[in-house]
Write the structure tokens for this entry.
Amino acid sequence: MAKYKVEFKPSVRKDLDAIPIADRRRILKRIRSLANDPRPIGCQKLTGLEQYRIRQGNYRILYSIEDDRLVVIVVKVGHRREVYDR
């Protein structure tokens, strides 16, 4: 399997800044693992969207996958009670 490139929307930096450092490190480690397997065990496709989500503790990582370009784009990171608000 080819390795994917991980990209971030500019707003993700603001999302990550609001998260405590210990949790942020675990989240970033989980995001880096998406380069090797963009659809790991436990990921779920979001209904009505071309996005997926994975869990990291109480936080959720929302991302989209572009298989033709081998790119994973992290769209949003946040606490589980807030991340799905539009």
